[in-house]
Amino acid sequence: MQEASLYPKIIVKTMLQAKVFVTRRLPIELEQLRSLATVEVWPERQPPPYEILLEKVKEIDGLLCLLTDQIDRQLIESGKLKVISQMAVGYDNIDIAAATARQIPVGNTPGVLTDATADFAWALLMAAARRVVEADRFTRAGLWQTWEPDLLLGPNVTGATLGIVGFGRIGQAVARRAKGFEMRILYTSRQRCSPELEQSLGVEFATLEHLLQESDFVTLHTPSADDTYHLISDRQFELMKRSAILINTARGTIVDPDSLYRALASGQIAAAAVDVTEPEPIPSDSLLLTLDNLIIAPHIGSASRQTRSKMATMAIANLIAGLRGDRLANCVNPEIYNS
Hints:
Elements: H1 2-16, E1 19-22, H2 31-34, E2 38-41, H3 50-56, E3 62-65, H4 73-78, E4 83-86, H5 96-101, E5 106-107, H6 114-129, H7 132-140, E6 161-165, H8 169-179, E7 184-188, H9 195-201, E8 203-205, H10 208-214, E9 217-220, H11 234-239, E10 245-248, H12 257-266, E11 271-274, E12 294-296, H13 305-324
Parallel strand pairs: 1-2, 1-3, 3-4, 4-5, 6-7, 6-9, 7-8, 9-10, 10-11, 11-12
């Protein structure tokens, strides 16, 4: 009985000796984490410089990071990390092989941002189609003088053809929303979905080329990978309708920015709306910023209060599990648990 009563105290003491570095301020309080470990939070809006991270990993047990942090082999091998927890679904900024080699679990936050990102893809699609940002600038500039039959015309969304490139959770969520607009929905993906899923969502499988040729709106939802780098470039824009609108809420590297500029400036496509750029943030001297037919958002696809809070909660849960030596609820390298 006496040993059992002492056991929780031993665990708490061990956890309190752990040190954690959080690379940005989070949208939730950190009381639970602070009760279990010594926590340092980077206070600036900009990410901590790589040199700072290199120093921090030498003295911390857990790292809670974001997509903007470079967690490479040198950094991983420089420290004594027990766990890396990323507040994001993607993790292409982390050298997973290096972490796995050192038996460090890497956590992410999948699933929770599906609806928020799908909603935002639709916000961008509607804003580009109906030229909402242009209309706002037009009004603020004092140019609205009367109702005009041909002022700021855009295409119909209802009944149009939507092409979805990448058909994971977010792509499928976008398709469900498109049904309400009575759209013809084409999709392309590495693997074709089951006939049952296609029927339930009302979608048609297509090659990328056919999708681009047929679609009035093209929305991108593929991961960042070698085979998706500049997936949309000059050749792909040439296949698209001149009235087409491109939406990208996935990764900036999927679209060649120079090709995007040429397509928009020349009228090869009508408009685009993006939440991601290459590089990020977009340089202040980028020619893309001169275009009226392009909407650029600062990577806020998951930026609903509920979603960001849930992401932070999941990231902290992964971090605590790793510090305790427990299996992470969401682990991108689960093979470490088999060795």
